[in-house]
Design brief:
By secondary structure, the protein is mainly beta. It has no helices and 11 strands. The strands form 2 sheets. Strands 2, 4, 5, 6, 9, 10 and 11 form a 7-stranded mixed β-sheet that branches. The chain has a 4-stranded antiparallel β-sheet with strand order 1-3-8-7, with no helix packed on it.
Protein backbone atom coordinates (compact mmCIF):
# COMPACT_ATOMS: atom_id res chain seq x y z
CA UNK A 1 0.00 0.00 0.00
CA UNK A 2 1.02 3.60 -0.56
CA UNK A 3 1.46 6.09 2.26
CA UNK A 4 2.47 9.73 1.98
CA UNK A 5 3.77 11.82 4.88
CA UNK A 6 4.53 15.55 4.77
CA UNK A 7 7.23 17.25 6.83
CA UNK A 8 8.48 20.78 7.35
CA UNK A 9 5.44 22.84 8.20
CA UNK A 10 5.60 25.51 10.84
CA UNK A 11 5.45 29.21 11.65
CA UNK A 12 7.44 31.65 9.53
CA UNK A 13 7.55 35.44 9.17
CA UNK A 14 6.32 37.15 6.01
CA UNK A 15 9.12 37.18 3.46
CA UNK A 16 10.69 34.12 5.01
CA UNK A 17 11.29 30.67 3.60
CA UNK A 18 10.23 27.16 4.40
CA UNK A 19 10.93 23.79 2.83
CA UNK A 20 8.33 21.06 2.81
CA UNK A 21 9.06 17.44 2.05
CA UNK A 22 6.85 14.50 1.22
CA UNK A 23 7.96 10.91 1.55
CA UNK A 24 5.96 8.21 -0.19
CA UNK A 25 6.38 4.65 0.91
CA UNK A 26 5.68 1.75 -1.39
CA UNK A 27 6.96 0.05 -4.50
CA UNK A 28 6.36 1.57 -7.92
CA UNK A 29 6.91 0.49 -11.50
CA UNK A 30 7.95 3.95 -12.59
CA UNK A 31 8.23 7.55 -11.47
CA UNK A 32 4.82 8.94 -10.64
CA UNK A 33 3.60 12.51 -10.98
CA UNK A 34 3.44 14.27 -7.65
CA UNK A 35 1.89 17.52 -6.60
CA UNK A 36 1.28 19.91 -3.75
CA UNK A 37 -2.13 21.29 -2.83
CA UNK A 38 -3.15 23.58 -0.03
CA UNK A 39 -6.27 24.55 1.85
CA UNK A 40 -6.58 27.79 3.78
CA UNK A 41 -9.04 28.18 6.65
CA UNK A 42 -12.57 28.55 5.35
CA UNK A 43 -11.50 28.03 1.75
CA UNK A 44 -11.49 25.18 -0.71
CA UNK A 45 -8.49 23.13 -1.69
CA UNK A 46 -6.31 24.65 -4.40
CA UNK A 47 -3.50 23.31 -6.51
CA UNK A 48 0.00 24.66 -5.89
CA UNK A 49 2.55 22.79 -8.01
CA UNK A 50 3.14 19.57 -9.93
CA UNK A 51 6.19 17.63 -11.04
CA UNK A 52 5.53 15.11 -13.80
CA UNK A 53 7.10 11.72 -14.30
CA UNK A 54 9.43 13.35 -16.82
CA UNK A 55 10.50 16.07 -14.41
CA UNK A 56 8.46 18.88 -15.90
CA UNK A 57 7.31 21.42 -13.32
CA UNK A 58 4.14 23.46 -13.26
CA UNK A 59 3.00 26.09 -10.78
CA UNK A 60 -0.09 27.99 -9.85
CA UNK A 61 0.21 31.63 -10.83
CA UNK A 62 0.14 32.85 -7.24
CA UNK A 63 3.31 30.93 -6.35
CA UNK A 64 5.18 31.28 -9.65
CA UNK A 65 8.69 32.55 -9.01
CA UNK A 66 8.43 31.99 -5.26
CA UNK A 67 7.93 28.24 -4.87
CA UNK A 68 10.00 25.43 -6.36
CA UNK A 69 8.94 21.80 -6.54
CA UNK A 70 11.64 19.16 -6.89
CA UNK A 71 12.22 15.45 -6.60
CA UNK A 72 14.93 13.74 -4.60
CA UNK A 73 17.24 11.08 -5.96
CA UNK A 74 14.79 8.72 -4.37
CA UNK A 75 11.82 9.23 -6.69
CA UNK A 76 9.35 8.70 -3.88
CA UNK A 77 10.33 11.94 -2.16
CA UNK A 78 9.26 15.38 -3.33
CA UNK A 79 10.03 18.85 -1.95
CA UNK A 80 8.43 22.25 -2.02
CA UNK A 81 10.83 25.12 -1.42
CA UNK A 82 8.79 28.17 -0.47
CA UNK A 83 10.40 31.61 -0.57
CA UNK A 84 9.05 35.13 -0.10
CA UNK A 85 6.17 33.75 1.89
CA UNK A 86 3.06 35.85 2.32
CA UNK A 87 0.33 35.70 4.96
CA UNK A 88 -2.05 34.47 2.27
CA UNK A 89 0.15 31.38 1.89
CA UNK A 90 -1.07 30.25 5.29
CA UNK A 91 -2.74 26.88 4.78
CA UNK A 92 -2.51 23.18 5.32
CA UNK A 93 -0.29 21.81 2.57
CA UNK A 94 -1.01 18.37 1.17
CA UNK A 95 1.19 16.09 -0.90
CA UNK A 96 -0.38 14.07 -3.70
CA UNK A 97 0.84 11.15 -5.79
CA UNK A 98 -0.90 10.06 -8.98
CA UNK A 99 -0.65 6.39 -9.90
CA UNK A 100 -2.36 4.08 -12.35
CA UNK A 101 -4.32 2.68 -9.43
CA UNK A 102 -5.52 5.99 -8.11
CA UNK A 103 -4.58 9.17 -6.30
CA UNK A 104 -2.98 9.14 -2.87
CA UNK A 105 -2.83 11.97 -0.35
CA UNK A 106 -0.82 12.81 2.70
CA UNK A 107 -2.50 14.05 5.84
CA UNK A 108 -1.12 17.56 5.46
CA UNK A 109 1.26 19.88 7.27
CA UNK A 110 0.34 23.32 8.62
CA UNK A 111 2.15 26.37 7.27
CA UNK A 112 1.49 29.65 9.06
CA UNK A 113 2.95 32.93 7.76
CA UNK A 114 2.65 35.63 10.39
CA UNK A 115 4.75 38.27 12.08
Amino acid sequence: QVQLVEYGGGLVQPGGSLRLSCAASGRFFSVNPMAWYRQAPGKGQEWVATITSGGSKNYAEYVQGRFTISRANRENTVYLQMNSLKPEDTAVYYCQMQTSMGVYWGRGTQVTVSS
